[in-house]
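Listing S7. Sequence submitted for prediction.
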Amino acid sequence: MSNSGKSFLLLYKSGSEQGSCALNNIGELADKSNIYAADINAVSDIHSKFGINSVPALLLFNKGQYQTVVKGCQEVSFYRGLVENSLFDAKPVSNGAKKVTVYSTPTCPWCTTLKGWLEHNNIQYTDIDVSRDQQAAYDLVRRSGQQGVPQTDINGQIVVGFDQNRLKQLLELA
């Protein structure tokens, strides 16, 4: 892994539909100089080092340090956004602490992306797994009218999905 800037490691399993999908979609990107791939059939110790228990998984590194993971096969545009850094660029313009709650599930790739984005921007949040907390899921549907995740509560305002512009606005990020 490169110690300068962002780099990515795709862990996949050859012969699996999801693994092939992720590998093909990552392969569509024009600049792959900072993207690496490892087949867990050939290299079996990497995923356990990072606590990865399912593949495909795209690990994100910044200056050689592991940051976060995106699980599953994603669209080419999603991977392009990650690689081009467009999903993770924001700077706080205010120091006012916001109460942030993320409603998510462990298998939701956009939930993982949202949480990684919040962490990258040093936003503290509470994560509620609605697949394990049925009352929280019920309350969320009652408040937002939506069942999907991720949903983010920022000081009482609900953001459905990973709407980066709305999140930046509510969190007062530039």
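Caption to Listing S7: primary sequence and predicted structure tokens for the chain studied. The CA atoms of residues 98 and 155 lie 6 Å apart. The first helix runs from residue 17 to 27.
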